[in-house]
């Protein structure tokens, strides 16, 4: 097991490097450091000196990829690419183009993201699985037909509609909870209720269908026939046998998204003004703050790869066929 | 005639889709699933609705140079059909079927006195002298008249078709799918006829912030949604199929390289990748203004690039599925037999693997269509979607969202966008379900 | 009738318009072994499933009456019927790997039956489970109880299934092809076990099988099913002495005779294929960098010769390496070491284009005719594929000509070429596969279990076809099989494989009648025999 983890971690290194190169190319092809400086300082009325100062402050006053002025190893290391990349790998995100410390911003903002994403995930999972099980229990009945139609319709509605509609009806008309905003500590709960509910409702359509497909696949298998032959009722078969087997792909599917919860949902956080990493990223995109965007990309990649690794590990833990082979 | 880049690709897509449909109907092993789809009224109804949408989108894709305008504007067939709606611009918001503007103004009466009241719209309900009393009656009469004319038109077509066919045609008519087609066509044609005739006199879905008719905007947005759904697929398919099949078949280092590529692409959050690429495109366009002299051409380019980028970022899902399926197929005995018969690897891929994964491709294409249409709305919200000057449902929602706080609420733009988007996506999803049920090989075995 | 256990009267099962089970009636007496025999599609499994109401949703069932010891089953509501399943009637299936829940331990799965039907304490349940495992002769039951199905061998899994069925202490045990998926030596053990348990517990055993030879040894009464109808019933002894119905006669005639192997002279021909120290190894990779630490030795140093115009049979059970051997000889999987001399040319030294051109000499026919052909290709194209790739100069008209001739040689009508594989039966598909192999005019055809997936009557036809083609074209066959029945019918020489090595080799008459090696003897003893006929199991 340990060797497996080490091997996967080693594989992750070239991946991260490739991601880094790709983002670097993307961003610096678009804008040269001069353009970035001009943008941050305002378009007009900037002196050449101000630009140089800004570039020096943010570490952009070196050549991009290759430094001809230095000797030996410094040809590579005294470049923007090297400096920024190494810092990223050390998780030193530096300062944003507008001057704030990215690292501390991230550390502060990841908790609200988590506070929104984790309950949405858990509640959504419970609701979806229960509904899917019910649909499978009543399969080939009119209840299932009605349920399927309802699911397709729920799935076809844009998530924006759920958000805007939810905000409007529950927040404005019924005035049950505040529409947007955030607070620290337990006071945050009243701000989270609406987005969590909307997240769950928006996800029911596709989620229940996905889990229902999983369950239906399992229900067709031979061991279910054996279970029935033993005298189990249909409900018992579903909950004891099918659920246990279906939990393997369900669990691994959940594990893979767990790390990415930290990144936050861009849309939800914007609409509900929750100061998480999602809104952080959107603001950075709108402001064209490349330092932040670059850091978020790297962070996102690390978390994604961590998710992949955790999925593989969870497979070995959860599936006895993999664990004991 | 003026052909934009996206127009050209749309024509190409139509040609390719028709050729594919013809090819598929010739293949005997495709006939059974196709028959199954044809037998399902829901599938046929959704397909008809989708085709109606496509027709509108196509009408909006045939552009001509507009000699009437001052700039280098181009207009499409749809624009010509909606000429009245285009011309009847108001100053600002107005509710559907209203004769009055949204906000109060200082109005001067003929005798010189001023009052603070809702002004009359320039075009909406302008033919009425006394809107308070006449409006509902007038609308009602016009609706009935329009529906009558539209229904009459459909009935004529129906009778014509009925009398034209012989026995085989008559049998076709009684089939529930045929009834579904006629029902959908009936509803669509009569309602559109009504709406169009009404729009001579009223703004049937109101006007937006700058006074543009919302119904017109919604119709124009159809093309955007369709383009994003289909062109993206056009870009995505070759990448996914080639890489997926090669990775699954050759294994070894080819598999490792392809897996590396798609894991890398997947780890970068797609929103950021799209954002970066869109910015790249904007910068390029800003630096080369001579190629993009026309507003329309610029917006079109951005739409095109959006599709390209969405395609490049979304091929990984299908690629993984195809790789998994190819790994399974590779161990099939008929592949081994082909190897034993000396068939070259490229031929094996083309003859044995590709046709047996096409059902996955088909299902993915139809399923992805709806999610892409929905994604466009979200992307426009983050300002990395289509150009703000392009008509799209995302832009409509984005613009109207901020106005929800006004009193009274400006609901018509949002509702129009949502309703049309819902109709298109629902039709696509229902059709996708039928396609999946028809082509699922496991159900095929059970007959 | 008071002393029948199960009485089925006028059972009809239909899928849509077609009747799969067409008004059958039979009874089973308490404590007896009743065998329901038929080929695939006869409806025998459906009959068993319908008694227990385990039919798929699409099936419609109706019966005048089904009684279990005077209790009428047809009217019982589902809630009550659940209590019956597993308790009064037990059912075991064909494939124990897929029939057991892969994520529950076998102890849990057996305990489930006890918890469902009896009121026992946890401690009592544990003890019962161990006792059951001992009863089905699983070694080290204390350890096995906590293991998962994939950790057990095929035979052990089937024993677990039997234990699960026994746990309910049923009056009737239905066994649907319980040994078909198992190796021949294990088959014998499982049948032995079933017989033993039946005598121990006094329960009735309803055995469903396609193998007449197999049931002849343990059944008390036999019923033969054809196309949904029972065509003959009777006591075993009477049945085999004097079968009445033409279908029963046909089934019996289709079984290969052991004496067919007698009198085959070894032909003094040149060796076409000479295999020396052939090895096929699969690497085992462990560690951080996945270094090769060892090998799974599928084929571990095999020597033999195959003479022109003869058939060499390679016999062994599953896992002995015979399939790897077949694929390795054809270079479909890489060989680790050894020489394969075909007409003097060492095939292991060839690669790329020269290997491709040699492919015409040696072809293969696979076991499963369903997965051996691309379902999306026309039969004509399937047969012509080899010609297109190895003889590209042949014109299309000439190809069509050759395809027509080949179809004729395998006794299929010419319009077969214009249809799709799924439109044909198993036997017809195997003929198409043979035609495909013949298309490139090979000298040697490797037949990998060519008849195992077919019904007994069809098996005989295919074997006749293969023998005819051998005579008319001077073909040589390397016949890979686990069945001595096929060997007796077709082989000139036999080589017995065990764990990657050949343990005995010689002319067929000698090996079958005077086996030298213990393993060969064990195999031969395990194969069900009937009046000089030998099962093709």
For the largest interface in this structure, which chains are involved and how many residues does each contribute?
Answer: A-B, 41 and 38 residues
Helix content of chain B: over 70%
Low confidence ranges of chain B: none
Choose one word for the global shape of chain A.
flat
What report would you give on this structure?
The complex is a heterotrimer of chains A (325), B (447) and C (537). Chain A has 325 residues and is mainly α. Helix content of chain A is 74%, strand content 0%. Chain A has helices spanning 2-30, 33-41, 48-57, 74-77, 80-89, 102-137, 142-156, 159-173, 189-219, 222-229, 234-257, 266-271, 277-287, 290-318, 320-323. In chain A, helix 7 crosses helix 9 and helix 9 crosses helix 11. The two termini of chain A are 12 Å apart. The model of chain A has no long low-confidence stretch (mean pLDDT 82). With 447 residues, chain B is mostly helical. A two-stranded antiparallel sheet of chain B has the order 1-2. A two-stranded antiparallel sheet of chain B has the order 3-4. In chain B, strand 1 (63-65) and strand 2 form a beta hairpin. In chain B, helix 9 runs antiparallel to helix 14. Chain B is globular and about 100 Å long. The two termini of chain B are 51 Å apart. In chain C, strands 6-7-8-3-9-10 form a six-stranded mixed beta sheet, sandwiched between helices. Chain C has a six-stranded mixed beta sheet with strand order 16-17-18-13-19-20, with helices on both faces. A four-stranded antiparallel beta sheet of chain C has the order 2-1-4-5, covered by helices on one side. In chain C, helix 11 crosses helix 17, helix 14 packs parallel to helix 16 and helix 15 (396-409) packs across helix 16 (426-438). The model of chain C has no long low-confidence stretch (mean pLDDT 88). Classes of the chains: A mainly alpha (325), B mainly alpha (447), C alpha/beta (537). The B-C interface holds B 27-29, 332-334, 336-344, 347, 351-352, 355-356, 446 and C 58, 327, 330, 332, 356-357, 359-360, 362-364, 366-368, 371-377, 385-386, 388-390, 420, 433, 436, 440.
Describe, in short, the structure shown.
Chain B is mostly helical and 447 residues long. Chain B is built from 17 helices and 4 strands. The longest helix of chain B is centred in the middle third of the chain and has 37 residues, at 214-250.
């Amino acid at each position: 097991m340990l060797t497996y983890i080490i091997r996967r971690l080693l594989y992750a290194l070239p991946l991260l490097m490739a991601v880094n190169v790709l983002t670097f190319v993307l961003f610096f092809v678009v804008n040269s450091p001069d353009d970035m400086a001009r943008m941050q300082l305002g378009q007009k009325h900037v002196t050449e000196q101000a630009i140089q100062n800004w570039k020096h402050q943010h570490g952009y006053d070196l050549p991009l990829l290759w430094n001809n002025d230095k000797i030996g190893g410094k040809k590579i290391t005294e470049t923007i690419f090297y400096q920024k990349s190494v810092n990223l790998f050390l998780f030193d995100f530096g300062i944003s183009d507008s001057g704030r410390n990215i690292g501390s911003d991230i550390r502060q903002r990841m908790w609200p993201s988590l506070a929104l994403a984790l309950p949405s995930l858990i509640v959504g999972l419970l609701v979806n699985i229960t509904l899917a099980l019910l649909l499978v229990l009543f399969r080939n009945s009119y209840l299932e037909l009605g349920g399927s139609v309802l699911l397709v319709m729920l799935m076809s509605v844009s998530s924006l509609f759920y958000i805007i509609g939810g905000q409007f009806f529950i927040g404005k008309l019924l005035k049950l909870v505040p529409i947007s905003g955030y607070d620290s500590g337990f006071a945050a709960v009243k701000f989270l209720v609406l987005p969590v509910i909307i997240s769950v409702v928006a996800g029911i359509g596709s989620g229940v269908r996905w889990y229902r497909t999983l369950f239906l696949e399992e229900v067709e298998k031979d061991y279910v026939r054996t279970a029935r032959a033993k005298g189990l009722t249909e409900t018992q078969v579903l909950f004891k046998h099918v659920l246990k087997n279906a939990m393997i792909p369900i669990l691994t599917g959940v594990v893979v998204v767990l790390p990415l919860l930290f990144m936050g949902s861009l849309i939800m956080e914007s609409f509900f003004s929750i100061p998480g990493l999602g809104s952080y990223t959107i603001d950075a995109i709108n402001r064209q703050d490349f330092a932040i965007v670059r850091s978020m990309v790297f962070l996102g990649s690390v978390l994604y790869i961590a998710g992949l690794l955790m999925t593989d590990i969870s497979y070995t833990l959860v599936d006895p066929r993999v664990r004991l082979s | 005639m003026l052909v934009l880049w996206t127009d050209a690709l749309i024509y190409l897509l139509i040609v390719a889709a028709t050729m594919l449909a013809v090819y598929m109907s010739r293949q005997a092993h495709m006939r059974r699933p196709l028959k199954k789809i044809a037998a399902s009224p829901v599938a046929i109804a959704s397909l008809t609705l989708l085709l109606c949408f496509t027709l509108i989108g196509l009408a909006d894709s045939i552009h001509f140079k507009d000699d009437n305008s001052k700039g280098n504007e181009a207009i499409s067939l749809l624009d010509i059909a909606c000429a009245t709606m285009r011309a009847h611009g108001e100053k600002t918001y107005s509710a559907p079927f209203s004769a009055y503007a949204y906000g109060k103004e200082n109005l001067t009466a003929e005798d010189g006195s001023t009052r603070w009241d809702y002004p009359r719209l320039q075009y909406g309900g302008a033919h009425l002298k006394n809107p308070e009393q006449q409006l509902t009656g007038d609308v009602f009469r016009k609706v009935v008249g329009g529906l009558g004319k539209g229904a009459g038109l459909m009935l004529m077509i129906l009778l014509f078709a009925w009398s034209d066919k012989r026995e085989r045609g008559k049998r076709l008519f009684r089939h529930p799918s045929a009834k579904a087609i006629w029902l959908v066509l009936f509803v669509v044609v009569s309602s559109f006829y009504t709406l169009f005739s009404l729009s001579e006199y009223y703004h049937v879905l109101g006007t937006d912030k700058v006074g543009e008719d919302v119904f017109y905007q919604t119709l124009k947005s159809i093309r955007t949604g369709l383009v994003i759904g289909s062109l993206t697929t056009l870009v995505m398919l070759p990448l996914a199929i080639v890489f997926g099949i090669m990775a699954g078949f050759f294994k070894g280092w080819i598999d490792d390289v392809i897996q590396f590529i798609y894991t890398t692409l997947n780890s970068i959050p797609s929103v950021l990748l799209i954002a970066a690429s869109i910015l790249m495109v904007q910068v390029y366009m800003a630096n080369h203004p001579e190629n993009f002299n026309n507003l329309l051409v610029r917006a079109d380019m951005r739409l095109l690039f959006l599709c390209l980028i969405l395609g490049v970022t979304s091929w990984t899902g299908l690629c993984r599925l195809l790789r998994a399926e190819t790994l399974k197929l590779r161990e099939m005995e008929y592949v081994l037999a082909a190897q034993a018969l000396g068939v070259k690897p490229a031929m094996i891929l083309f003859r044995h693997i590709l046709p047996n994964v096409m059902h996955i491709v088909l299902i993915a294409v139809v399923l992805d269509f709806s999610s892409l249409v929905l994604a466009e709305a979200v992307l426009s919200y983050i300002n990395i979607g289509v150009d703000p000057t392009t008509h799209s449902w995302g832009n409509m929602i984005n613009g109207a969202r901020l106005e929800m706080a006004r009193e009274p609420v400006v609901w018509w733009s949002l509702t129009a966008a949502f309703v049309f988007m819902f109709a298109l996506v629902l039709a696509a999803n229902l059709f996708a379900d039928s396609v999946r049920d028809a082509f699922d090989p496991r159900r095929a075995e059970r007959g | 009738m008071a002393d029948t256990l199960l009485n089925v009267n006028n059972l009809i099962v239909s899928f849509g318009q077609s009747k799969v089970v067409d008004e059958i009636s039979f009874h089973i007496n308490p404590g007896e072994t009743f065998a329901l025999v038929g080929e695939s599609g006869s409806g025998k499994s459906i009959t068993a499933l319908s008694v227990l109401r385990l039919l798929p949703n699409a099936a419609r069932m109706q019966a005048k009456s089904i009684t279990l010891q005077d209790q009428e089953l047809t009217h019982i509501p589902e809630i009550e019927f659940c209590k019956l399943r597993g308790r009064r009637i037990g059912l075991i299936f064909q494939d124990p790997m897929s029939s057991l829940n892969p994520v529950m331990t076998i102890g849990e799965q057996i305990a489930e039956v006890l918890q469902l039907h009896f009121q026992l304490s946890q401690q009592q349940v544990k003890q019962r489970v161990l006792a059951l495992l001992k009863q089905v002769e699983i070694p080290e039951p204390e350890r096995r109880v906590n293991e998962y199905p994939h950790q057990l061998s095929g035979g052990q899994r089937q024993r677990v299934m039997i234990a699960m069925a026994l746990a309910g202490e049923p009056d009737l045990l239905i066994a649907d092809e319980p040994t078909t998926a198992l190796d021949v030596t294990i088959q014998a053990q499982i049948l032995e076990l079933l017989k033993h348990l039946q005598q121990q517990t006094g329960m009735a055993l309803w055995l469903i099988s396609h193998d007449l030879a197999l049931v002849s040894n343990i059944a008390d009464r036999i019923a033969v099913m054809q196309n949904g109808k029972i065509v003959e019933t009777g006591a075993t002894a009477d049945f085999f002495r004097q079968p009445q119905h033409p279908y029963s006669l046909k089934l019996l005639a289709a079984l290969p005779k052991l004496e067919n192997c007698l009198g085959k002279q070894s032909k003094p021909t040149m060796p076409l294929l000479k295999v020396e120290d052939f090895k096929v190894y699969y690497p085992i990779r462990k560690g951080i960098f996945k270094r090769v630490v060892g090998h799974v030795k599928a084929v571990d140093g095999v020597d033999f010769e195959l003479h022109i115009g003869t058939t060499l049979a390679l016999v062994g059970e599953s896992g002995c390496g015979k399939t790897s051997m077949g694929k390795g000889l054809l270079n479909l999987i890489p060989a680790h070491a050894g020489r394969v001399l075909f007409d003097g040319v060492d095939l292991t030294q060839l690669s790329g284009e020269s290997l491709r051109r040699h492919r015409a000499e040696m072809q293969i026919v696979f076991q499963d005719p369903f997965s051996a052909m691309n379902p999306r290709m026309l039969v004509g194209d399937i047969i012509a594929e080899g010609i297109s790739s190895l003889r590209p100069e042949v014109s299309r008209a000439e190809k069509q000509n050759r395809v027509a001739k080949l179809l004729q040689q395998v006794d299929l009508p010419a319009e077969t070429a214009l249809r799709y594989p799924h439109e044909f039966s198993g036997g017809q598909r195997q003929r198409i596969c043979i035609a495909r192999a013949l298309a490139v005019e090979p000298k040697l055809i490797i037949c990998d279990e060519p008849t195992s997936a077919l019904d007994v009557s069809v098996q005989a036809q295919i074997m006749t076809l293969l023998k005819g083609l051998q005579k008319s074209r001077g073909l040589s066959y390397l016949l890979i099989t686990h069945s001595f029945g096929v060997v007796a019918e077709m082989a000139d020489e036999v080589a017995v494989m065990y764990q990657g090595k050949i343990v005995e080799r010689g002319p067929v008459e000698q090996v079958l009648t005077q086996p030298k090696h213990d393993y060969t003897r064990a195999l031969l003893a395990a194969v069900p025999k009937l009046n000089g006929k030998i099962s093709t199991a």
